[in-house]
Structures are given as structure tokens and as C-alpha cells.
Amino acid sequence: MKGHILILTANILFGISVPVFKYLLNSGMPPETIAFLRAAVTCVLFWLLSLFLPRQRVTHRDLGLLAVCGLCGVGINQLLFVVGLRMTSPVDGSIIASATPIFALLLASVILREPVTKRKLLGVMLGVGGGLLLVFGSAHAASGGSSVLGDTMIAVNYMVYALYLVLSRSLAGCYSAVTIMKWMFLVATVALFPFSAGELGHIATFPVSAFQPMQLYGLLYVTVGSTFIAFLLVTCSLKSLRPTTVSMYNYVQPMVACAIAIAIGQDVFSILKLGSLLLVFTGVYLVTTSRRRHEPVTIKN
Asked: Is 103 helix (H, G, I), strand (E, B) or coil?
């Protein structure tokens, strides 16, 4: 139950971050700079936090796996997400996000030899149906400002994120979440630096007063809230949940975006949205309860 609460909270944080990212992009901040600052600030926070925790020695083999996870889960993932979000519409992004559990299901079955049951397949399809119903039934489902390139970037972003969920499963059973995150974000920070070096030079000459307060609040949220805290929760959840189960909670993100739109008067609640909600959580339930009795659920350190 703890793992489900952790991953649910993480996806709520991710969902809130989408309109925040949109605001930062619309305010003129380059996407490459946002991605780098997100990784760099979080990297510093995790390394500082690790100073107060018992030190864990990481094997050379696992360092290589951590590097791959850092590129898939943070570096490539975040860069493609922010750049793609600038070129596509939130509607298209939500539709593509609905395919994440399918990517995770296929990768987990190949890499982890995870059993693919009829119950699990049904759960994934119900989740996809709920996500699509929410998007197409929204009053804001006019797909404007989209591009093939932007949609492709968002799609690849979710593919590599699904790969990260699958690959990091074994690491979650050997190391603490902080140890995993500090190495992942270090790799991602180094990888993202070349893409943002030019823009960072210009930003470094700006006084803090040149930034609007909402920009600073937005950067604070996307670095601490939807990255530092959210990624920590995702890694902790992988200690007791399968990658396929974790990816199913990705459907919570468009739900959160819809709730925010309703709260600020940009959308209204409807029977269609209620049906979408029921489909999504029915799908999550089917996937989370689809396991063989002899299969272990928890990975202990």
C-alpha cells in the first residue's frame, strides 16, 4: 500500500508541473535551460542529502547501469519532454502519455521476463481508454499548435521513461533511493550541459531581480517539487511495485491537469470525466492485482 501512495503522490506532482512548464516556456525561458537547471539543482540536493546518510559503495557494473538510467530517466527524457512540449499541444501530449504503460509492459516482459496476463492486458487497455476518453471529451480538446516533431519527441520521451522504470527495478533492490538518484542526476547534468551552455551564459549575467516572481516560483517547483521529491518517490515505489504497475499511475497526470483546469474555471466536471476516472482506476486496480501467488512483491535490501 505504501508503494501505491508514493507513486500516486509522484504523479500528482508531475501532473501539476505541466502547466508550470507551459508558463515558464511561454514566459521566454529556453527549454534546454529549464531541463538543465531541473537536473543540476536536483543533483546538488541529492548529493547534499547523501552526506547525512550512510554511504553505499556502488559496483562498476551498477555505475554503468546508473548512467544508462540517468540518461533515460532524466537526461534524454527531460530534454525531449520540455522541447517537445513547446512544439505540441497538451492534448497531443496527454494522448501519447496514455501509451506509457504499454511501453513498460512490453519492455518488462522482454527484459524482466514479467508475465503478461490477460488481466494485466485488460487493465492497460482500460487505462488507455480512460485517458483517451478524458482527452477527446474535454472542452479543450482542440489540437492547436501541434507538430509532428513535437509529438515524436513526447513519444520518445515516454518510451525512454518506460525503459528507465524497467532498468532501475534491479537497482532499487540493491541501493537506497538517494544513492540511485544522486548518480542518475549527476550523469544527466553532465549530459544536458552542452545543450544549455550558451543560454546559461546569458542567464548568469542577469540579476535575480530581472526574473518575475512567478518564474522563480515555477523554477522552484519544477526542481524541488516535480523533480527532487517526485523522482525520490518513484524510486522508493519501485522497491515494492512492478514497473508496469508504476507506469499505470501515469494516467493520474492528465487527471490532475483536468482537475486544475476545473479549479481555475477553464473546464467543467461532467459525466464523461467521471466515466474516464472510473476506467483509469479500474485499469490500475486490474494491473496492480494481476500477479501470481508465488511471485514476490517486495524487494528487500
From this structure: helix
